[in-house]
Structure formats: structure tokens, C-alpha cells
Write a structure and sequence with these properties.
Blueprint (H helix, E strand, L loop, with lengths): L1 E3 L1 H9 L11 E9 L2 E7 L7 E2 L4 E2 L5 H11 L5 E8 L9 H13 L6 E6 L4 E6 L6 E2 L5
Parallel strand pairs: 1-3, 6-7
Antiparallel strand pairs: 2-3, 2-6, 4-5, 7-8, 8-9
Bound molecules: zinc ion (ZN).
Length: about 140
Amino acid sequence: MLHFSKLTLETFCQHVQVSDSDCEAGGLLLGSVHGVHMLIEQATIPTILDKRFRYLFERMPFGHEAIALARWGTSQGTIRYLGEWHTHPEDTPHPSGLDRSEWNRLSVKRLDQRPMLAVIVGKKTLYIELVPCSGHGSVFFPVE
Ligand SMILES: [Zn+2]
């Protein structure tokens, strides 16, 4: 099971691409792991260094990783990097080929060997997948 904190959902809502000129946004997902459950505490927001376009979001490491490290420190290692999120200007978002190759690349890089959580924030729904090092992972479905 996967839970998002109120703060995380607010961050997602603030970046939904409602207007035709809104650019894609994204960042890291930070949270804690409780057995098979995950709680997403915080989503980092785009920095001025990130490349934001209507149909592309490229996250630069600077800023996001500093926040992740700081949270890890202040939480004594309980809040850690769990994955990535970005928006799509679609009602029901689907990952692009580029998203998928980027997710696989980031998943391989994870030191703890856990699959990476990937979230796409669409205009109406979320797309959520637990991405392994290669290929497709398990897709989550909402329970509420
Ligand atoms: Zn995408």
C-alpha cells in the first residue's frame, strides 16, 4: 500500500497543468518505508535550474538532492528518497518512452536495490508505478 501525505498531494495539485501554457513540473518523492507499505511525506518542487517545457520536464540534480539529504539527516534516516514525480498535460497520464528509459536508469542507480516509485500527475488522475531496473513494473490503482 502506498500513502501520500496531505502536503504531497497539495504539491501535486499546485502543479497540475490546468492552463494550456503550463509547463511540466516535477521533483523527488521523499518518504518512509514500513514493510511493504510506503508513506510519501514530501515531494520536492521544481528549481530554477530544471528544464521545464509543455511536454518535457528534465530535473537537474542540484537543489532536489540537497533537500533529500537534509530530510534524511533531520529524520535520522527514516525519510529517504523513494522516487520521482512529474506532471503531464493529459487527463489520464501515461508514461512516454523517454519516461520509461529515464525511470529504468534511475532505478538501476538506487543503492538499496529497491524498485523506484514513479508518479505522473495528470489533469484528472495519477499514474503510479513501482519501476524495477529493467522493463515494466507494477502499476498502482487507487483505493479511494
Ligand atoms: Zn513524462
